[in-house]
Amino acid sequence: MKLAILGGGSWGTALAIVLAPRFESVRLWVFEEDLAACMKTTRENVVYLSGLHLPLTVEVTSDLATALADADIVLGVVPSKFARGLWQRALPYLRAEATFVSATKGIEAGTLMRMSEVMADVIRPRFEPKPFEPKIAVLSGPTFAREIAKGEPAALVVVSFDPAIAVGVQKAFSGPTFRLYANSDPIGVELGGALKNVIAIAAGVVEGLGLGNNTMAALITRGLAEITRLAVAMGGHPKTLSGLAGLGDLVLTCTGDLSRNRRVGIELARGKSLTEITESTPMVAEGVETCGSAVALGARFGVDLPIMQQMHEVLQRGKDPRDALRDLMERSLKSE
Fold first, then answer.
1. Is omega for the bond preceding 129 within 30 degrees of 0, making it cis?
2. Which domain holds residue 208?
3. DSSP characters for 208-245?
4. Per-residue pLDDT tens for 102-127?
5. 335, part of any domain
């Protein structure tokens, strides 16, 4: 089988490294031409994943037509705000029989679509007027790119409304250090993956303010309750949020030192502006983009999201993180 990976950030590069032994051909599309040229020569992504090397079997390219030629599986790994534009650019080179997998954790601003919905929205018309439903799956779970690339054992979820598609990707991707579990709840899996990034920013605030384990435990637990409420209101299954794509991913992102979203919260608590934080690194913290969409979804479905609403005030309106924490603690008393 032939695999095309669209996105040469840390996650896309890590997936190319770990999946290379499982495919006849792996092509990694990198947006930046200069970075692609450097990676071809050094076999290293010095910008996003330095110190770890691509197998010689991975072909790096900045040309979409080359990357997508005869691909059996197309794996999208770009930040959510670029996803629609990338799939639109890729349209002329896509094959109807291919399987399309999203490894992006986010919600599209404006449309409030999950990433698999964005993919379907773009790809479906490509093959009209013949009725066509693209084979779409989502890859999610508690993972840091660097640890995956180093070959440390990890467990993830692959999900699709069609169980056969999920199982097909599961068999193609799973390996000695990369274990996949199949799931049929894309709503729960995608919302768990996207919304945990917002809670992780709040976790960083807790860390940056020097607060202790009691506070962190409360935040993670109540954050999971918020994510679950919204996911269920949108048609997801509560059981999904107690698994790898929910609780597992949330705990990792809220507590791990490699978490970009947690780092944003730490720096906010230390007094840096959001602009200063985002401009200091080429890495994308998806929670910053997702926060506004999460609040909008809460309003659309009538779901109370107090932690995410406070993070929206901090991120978009410059509210002091200390004031946000105080307002959370002084909310009217409720039953669990």
1. yes
2. 187-329
3. HTT--HHHHHHHHHHHHHHHHHHHHHTT--GGGGGSII
4. 999 999 999 999 999 999 999 998 88
5. no
Q: Are 179 and 193 in a shared domain?
A: no
Query: Of 184, 214, 231, which marks where a domain is finished?
Result: 184
> What is the pTM assigned to this prediction?
0.95
Q: Exactly one of 196, 239, 319, 334 is catalytic; which is it? A: 196
How many domains are there within the chain? 2
3-state secondary structure 306-324: HHHHHHHHHHHHCCCHHHH
Query: Cβ atoms within 10 A of the Cβ of 171, count?
Result: 12
8-state DSSP, 248? I
Is residue 99 located within the same domain as residue 246? no
Q: Write out the two tokens for 68.
A: 């997508």
Q: Is 171 a catalytic residue?
A: no
Beta strands 49-53 and 154-159, pairing class: unpaired
What is the predicted pLDDT for the residue at 190?
A: 98
Q: How far apart are alpha carbons 233 and 59 in whole angstroms?
A: 43
The answer to whether residues 85 and 199 belong to one domain is no
The answer to whether residues 62 and 115 belong to one domain is yes
Structure tokens belonging to residue 112: 């409030």
